[in-house]
Amino acid sequence: MIKILKPALLGALIIVFFSTLTQAKKGLLGSSTKQHEAVKEPKDQNSSTSLNDPAANELPEDIIFGSLDAPLDVIVYGAFTCSHCAQFHLDIIPLLKKDYVHTGKIRLITRDFPMDKASLAATVIARSGNRETYLRLAHIFFQKHESIIDHKSPLDYIKQIAVDAGMSREQVDRALADKALEDKVLNGVVYALNNYKIEATPTVIVGKTVINYAPEYDELQETIGKEIKNIHKSNASR
Q: How many CA atoms lie within 13 A of 33 on its CB side?
């Protein structure tokens, strides 16, 4: 397991890879789950960190919505303290599920990309439980993202949110002390940086198209339509 990225290094990564980030306010439920290697995603050979790509078993499990037989994967990277991520997850993802996931047109994959200590802590806590716990906490964290980053002690507030959502204080403290889980979360950051030209959160990958911002829904629909059409053309030419 890669143990290069520790919390102290997370800030350095943010500075290096997000120096042009302007969207953060202060600079700062599906059917199945499977590992990264089974997801149909492009590999960007021109975007790489100096760190080795983690193995699939060193990464957090994907949160997947939709049929495994859907022709197109849409992958969304986000951070719990990112206002644009919150808007995308609360407003756009429900539309994607209704129009594309439930109709079998896409498979939606959501992944964590913590960009500060607060979002790292929230991610580790959410990841410490089962799928239902993760989805419940993720929704609440996105709803309360402004309160988290404005709080005088974001970590204490995040811990209280988790307790209010049903976790015990012992479970929360145990999650934050779980270095193996923290490594998995940070390995997911390395994987994302190695494989995509991530410049901001959210980053939305639609087939072979990488969108480094929160697209409006009509733009996202247009991109999905083009990617599905390309897939059909490719299949027809075989």
A: 13
Strand partners, 103: none
Query: What residue ranges define each of the domains in the chain, with the CATH number in brackets?
Result: 7-225 (3.40.30.10)
The pLDDT score that the predictor gives to residue 39 is: 57
For the stretch 17-56, pLDDT in tens is 343 333 333 333 332 223 444 455 555 545 444 567 888 8
The two structure tokens encoding residue 190: 């390395």
The residue among 58, 87, 59, 89 whose CA lies nearest residue 76 is 89
Instruction: Pick the closest to residue 128 from 197, 177, 75 (CA basis).
Output: 177
Written in H, E and C, the secondary structure of the chain is: CCCCCCHHHHHHHHHHHCCCCCCCCCCCCCCECCCHHHCCCCCCCCCCCCCCCCCHHHCCCCEEECCCCCCEEEEEEECCCCHHHHHHHHHHHHHHHHHHHCCCCEEEEEEECCCCHHHHHHHHHHHCCCHHHHHHHHHHHHHCHHHHHHCCCHHHHHHHHHHHCCCCHHHHHHHHCCHHHHHHHHHHHHHHHHHCCCCCCCEEEECCEEECCCCCHHHHHHHHHHHHHHHHHHHHCC
pLDDT of residue 42: 56
pTM of the model: 0.81
Tell which residue, 172, 181, 108, has the closest CA to residue 137.
172
